[in-house]
Amino acid sequence: MSEERRERRSYLIGTLLSILLTAIAFATIPLDLPRGGTMLLIGISAVLQVIVQLRFFLHIDLSRQKREDLQLILFSLLLLGIMAGGTIWILTNLSQRMM
Amino acid sequence: MKLLGNLNWDVTPFSDAINDPSTNTFVAAGAASLVIIGAVSVLILLTWFRLWRPLWRDWLTSADHKRIGVMYIVLALVMLARGVAEGAVMRGHQAMALNGGPLSADHFSELFSTHGTIMILFVAMPLVTGLINIVVPLQIGARDMAFPVMNQVSLGLTAAGAALIMVSLVIGRFETGGWTAYPPYTGKVFSPGEGPDYWIWSVVPAGLGSMLSGINFAVTIYKCRAPGMTYMRMPLFTWTALCTAIMMIYAMPPVTVSSLMLALDRYAGFHFFSNDLGGNMMNYANIFWMFGHPEVYILVLPAYGVWSEVAATFSAKQLYGYVSLVTATMSIAVISFTVWLHHFFTMGQSASVNIAFGIATMIIAVPTGVKVYDWMATLWRGRIRMTVPVIYLTGFFILFVIGGLTGVILANPTIDYQVHNTLFLVAHFHNVLIPGVLFGMLAGIHYWFPKVFGFRLDETWGARAAGLWVVGFCLTFLPLYVLGLMGMPRRSPSFTDPAYLPMEYLAAFGAVVILGALAATFTTYIVSIRHRKWLAVPLGDPWDGRTLEWATPAPVPEWNFAVIPEVSSRDAFALEKEGGTPYAPVSRYADITLPRRTTMGLTVCVATTGTGFALVWHIWWLVILCFTGLLLTMIARAFATNTEQIIPAAEVARQHRRWLDAIAQNTGITRDAECTSANRGLAAPDEVIR
Ligand code: HEM
Ligand SMILES: [Cu+2]
């Protein structure tokens, strides 16, 4: 039973943290921060939320790391890096050339 | 608020044909009638032959991976018929399109848009997914997929997308912006009608379904392999399936997301891709091709897997260069995520961006080149039989290399600037998709068909079909290279330069040959079903196969393996046969647990189709109804506990022993007599070639 309770608590914490981080991202608009600050805050809360979801919902942590989980995460990071990095490169380049 | 949203009688092609009789509207109304006649005749046939009950019990509610795979392939073949017909209509129209042509420009645009969408998402994808479904669990010694019900759901989602495209032929119009559906043209301002919505709600479920399939395949291959089946002992088809699965997981979300963003633009007044208010339509092309390029390798890798199995089996030799083939597959999977920009070299980014992606594109040709040499080396001095899969393989070798070479040409941005958006490109991608993917899948179906149904496919008709496909392909598509170099733009409903005519005629003639190839393909299936007694191979190994799936009866029982095999080497079954110890008797059988039948997939299919249709026509009450139904089904499923059935050990033992006895009484067949009725599926020992 205690196992199940621990599980449930972990899911609850994850949900609350996710809601909190989402709320922070949305709050940046009414708070009317400077543009750079807004982007930074949204970016940070997005990355944090990814970590929260991996930790509390997908149960991936550093201690009992299985090799396949690690491979999967590294591969995901590689592909996300390619896609996000490529997009930023392409679109900033396009935007500069349209100035 | 109108009860039926934007629906009314005027949206059908029939009313168009009545109000404005012309060739154009008659073709549309004819196509719509074909859909209706087709659907009604299927219903009548099912009732006539009293097939409703078996259809429901053995197929629609089955969670068996083989049956789900077969349903994927049947879906693909139906859609292939429509796709090829549309292709032929386009070729026919264009041959008459000097200063005009029978069809209206919008109708022609609908044709290439549905054709492209159907061929990629509802023909090629289901063929690949279906074949992987059938083959992979058998090759790795598993009883089913890791998530059998999710497998059904994936099929349901794909079928829902296909159903919506079929509906669009009868009710309303499809999108006219091509299979890529680039905004701002497909935005609300320039395409106010229902067309792009049909495209969106067909693509989104199919994308989700494929992503779920990818997860399912990857987990199955990671977690459900038989003991001893290490990664480097997996058959090559399974390797390509693994890489394709991983690519599906990462490449499908971009298209789902970009389509949903387009939907938000269209339905909710967002400005992701609009011209004004901060929208950026170039980001659509960017996201779409993050899916689009990996997609072509998702399709072709399993075909490479088929070629690997076919080359080894039909030359009775060990696959040459296994490690290099695996490495090449993995390299392709990764590199294919780094080249997407070559689909929009001309969008305006700087030369340095272009050349980076151009070089990456040229690099990806290297692993494929390695593979071609490996397959040729496999065939070298082998005991080759010219069966149907080998005819396809021969066509593939020559034609695919041409297609690959024109790809490397297009990878060069300076050349691409000259020929992009011409028929040269159309020739190139058909040149890789047809000899690569389609031939591969047709060869794979021919090769594994006996495993699923218990009888071989007719070799004579199969060979005719293969020959017609090869010839028809050459006649239809090689002339398009010339037209492209002459400057003829793709997607042209008409043209003014009579110099295009000779090649147009040739291509139109080719399309007729392809129609013949399609007819021969279907004839192969019909003739084989008629002659199934003669073609039966119940002992399960008609081609002297090398991998685990051939060490089972045909048709393979629902539980695949009486006992899960232990694997001690690559090509385990071939080695056992060489050592003279195949078909070892089993001393102890155990009960087998299998997934129970469920209506989950079917419910998801119906609810998704309903949601999509209602969204297209803005029938909001129906959207809410169907979508709530969808959610409730999923929640209800989470509470289902009685999800498994037990096959008693005695039943397994009975069937397995009967099969072993039949093998003991059979003398086996030599490779020379493989295509005669003497082939009952037991391979006689042959000379071993190394
Ligand atoms: C088998 C006979 C086939 C014929 C006769 C055919 C014919 C055509 C024609 C005439 C076009 C329009 C070309 C243009 O833009 O001017 C086209 C486009 C296209 N075809 Fe095919 N095709 C065939 C098979 C296939 C297959 C097997 C696939 C994919 C697996 C495929 C994928 C596409 C795609 C993606 C387009 C582009 C659609 C667009 O412009 O948005 N085709 N085809
Ligand atoms: Cu590409």
From TrEMBL, chain A:
Protein's name in the database: Cytochrome bo(3) ubiquinol oxidase subunit 4
User: Origin, by domain of life?
Assistant: Bacteria
State the similarity comment.
Belongs to the cytochrome c oxidase bacterial subunit 4 family.
The record's listing under Pfam families reads: COX4_pro
Q: What does this protein do?
A: Cytochrome bo(3) ubiquinol terminal oxidase is the component of the aerobic respiratory chain of E.coli that predominates when cells are grown at high aeration. Has proton pump activity across the membrane in addition to electron transfer, pumping 2 protons/electron.
Locate the transmembrane regions by residue number.
12-31, 37-58, 70-91
Task: Tell me how this protein assembles.
Answer: Heterooctamer of two A chains, two B chains, two C chains and two D chains.
Keyword terms of this UniProt record: Cell membrane, Membrane, Transmembrane, Transmembrane helix
The UniProt entry lists membrane topology as: Multi-pass membrane protein
The keyword Transmembrane appears for this protein = yes
Predominant place of localization: membrane
From TrEMBL, chain B:
Q: Which InterPro entries match?
A: Cyt_c_oxase-like_su1_dom, Cyt_c_oxase-like_su1_sf, Cyt_C_Oxase_1
Which Pfam families does the protein's record reference? COX1
Q: Where does the Cytochrome oxidase subunit I profile domain lie?
A: 50-568
Q: Which PROSITE patterns match?
A: COX1
Sorted alphabetically, the keyword list is:
Copper, Electron transport, Heme, Iron, Membrane, Metal-binding, Respiratory chain, Transmembrane, Transmembrane helix, Transport
Q: Which domain of life is it from?
A: Bacteria
For this protein, the parts annotated as crossing the membrane are: 26-49, 70-90, 118-141, 153-174, 198-222, 234-252, 287-307, 319-345, 351-370, 390-411, 423-449, 461-485, 505-527, 598-615
What protein family does this chain belong to?
Belongs to the heme-copper respiratory oxidase family.
Instruction: Please give the name of this protein.
Output: Cbb3-type cytochrome c oxidase subunit I
Give the organism, scientific name.
Paracoccus maritimus
